Amino acid sequence: MGVKDIGVKDKIWTNLKYLKEAKTQFQGISVAHNMTASQRAEIKKLVDQAKSEHASTSQDGVENYWFRVVGQGPRMWVKKIKKYELSCLMLNARSLVNKFDLFQSVVCNNDPDIIGVTES
Fold first, then answer.
1. Number of C-alpha atoms within 13 angstroms, CB side, residue 70?
2. In this structure, are 46 and 19 located in the same domain?
3. How many distinct structural domains can be found in the chain?
4. What totals of helices (H) and strands (E) does the chain contain, helices first?
5. 52 and 79 share a domain?
6. Partner residues linked to 81 by β-bridges
7. Is 93 helix (H, G, I), strand (E, B) or coil?
8. Is the pLDDT of residue 1 over 70?
């Protein structure tokens, strides 16, 4: 199915999140951009230019970033997104009060992004 009206297309893309929560009859539906060969080539060119510019101006390698094209037509531009690895710390809350100094030390030394606390 093709959509030519930009407003309708934007509305569809905005509401796609609801398909994940849909009943089983709709869970097999997938949606993808339908681009012409020239549109794909233009996007590839923009991404390659952004990667080249990044490589020449930054010491951080391009492999540490995702380069995504956003916008449409003349308003297209490349968004550079830093890749991160999440670190997690999971612990049992039992006797945490007695071991709070150890807990604080582990958190300070490891700087986790996510801390999970359970109680048994």
1. 7
2. no
3. 3
4. 4, 4
5. yes
6. 66
7. coil
8. no
- CA–CA gap between residue 45 and residue 81 (Å, rounded): 18
What's the token pair of residue 1?
A: 């199915």
Residue 7 in tokens: 């407003």
| Helix ranges (DSSP H) in 16-59 | 17-20, 37-57
Q: Which two tokens stand for residue 23?
A: 């009943």
Q: What is the pLDDT of residues 21-69, one digit of tens each?
A: 776 776 677 666 677 888 889 999 999 999 999 999 998 889 989 999 8
Q: Are 91 and 117 in contact (CB under 8 A)?
A: yes
- Domain hosting 41: range is 35-84
CA atoms within 13 A on the CB side of 28: 2
Residues 71, 97: contact at Cβ < 8 Å? no
